[in-house]
Fold:
Amino acid sequence: MQIEAASEVAQDVTKELTRFQRYTGNLIDNALNAGTKVLIVIVLFFIGRFLINIIRKLLRKSLERSSVNNGNIKFIDATVRILLYILLIGLLAGYFGIETASVVALLGSAGLTVGLAFQGSLSNFAGGMLILLTKPFILGDYIFVPGASVEGTVDDIGMFYTRLKTVDNRSVVIPNSLLSNTTVTNLTFFDVRKLEVIIGVAYDSDIDKVKSVLAELLDSEEFVVHKKDKQIFVNELNSSSIDIGMRFFVKKSEYFQSKWQILEDIKKTFDANNITIPFNQLDIHMENDKIKP
Structure:
């Protein structure tokens, strides 16, 4: 009986050892398989990232050959990069045995949650797409945005925001949703801009002489373009002056410099021709009444 009991114990121990060896072997095999898959996924990720960079470079070169402005190129590049990385992650998940449909459903659910949480950011993204397609302005344009009470040169058009550089060297960031849903004045859309200057002269001035002097001045200015289209006119009869208006074209890149220069030249020209620029004043006339004793 003791021998039989010892034999049964030995068999049980042998079974347990065999079971443990199988479990250990399977565990090692599973670990090796999982480690191999992880290494393969890491290698595939770096290969995929390398291919994504190649695709982006080819896309950028193609857009540059098509004369697409730099702002739109940056926007398209950022969008394509996000989409390609999402595709890469989906492919790597499929390699681990995760069904593509499940990945798509998960991304869709996550996208809906993120979309509800970041409605403003998504509207900015949609606004950026509209700016990209309609091109109301490009990099380097000088725009005025009444809704933000700001104006400046377009320095960058991003996926969610557009950055302006003001004349006093400030950086202003405006949401794309605002730019796509409000009136934006592009002051440099055309190659030339019309500059208007109003200057007041005294009532005793000879208007014909004033207009002739201003016409000669505009003809002599190098920054004035399309000189045949210049206009000189009486703009208004003010209480203390006759306002003479001037309209002429200048290059968009020289708008402010031209305005400053013409004002200085007008003053010098008027001084040389004895034309008075009046200032606000009050004339008081007093009569001396003789008092009879």
Observations:
- The beta strands are 142-145, 150-157, 161-165, 171-175, 185-186, 192-201, 224-225, 231-237, 242-251.
- The chain has seven helices and nine strands.
- The two ends are 166 Å apart (CA to CA).
- The first helix runs from residue 2 to 65.
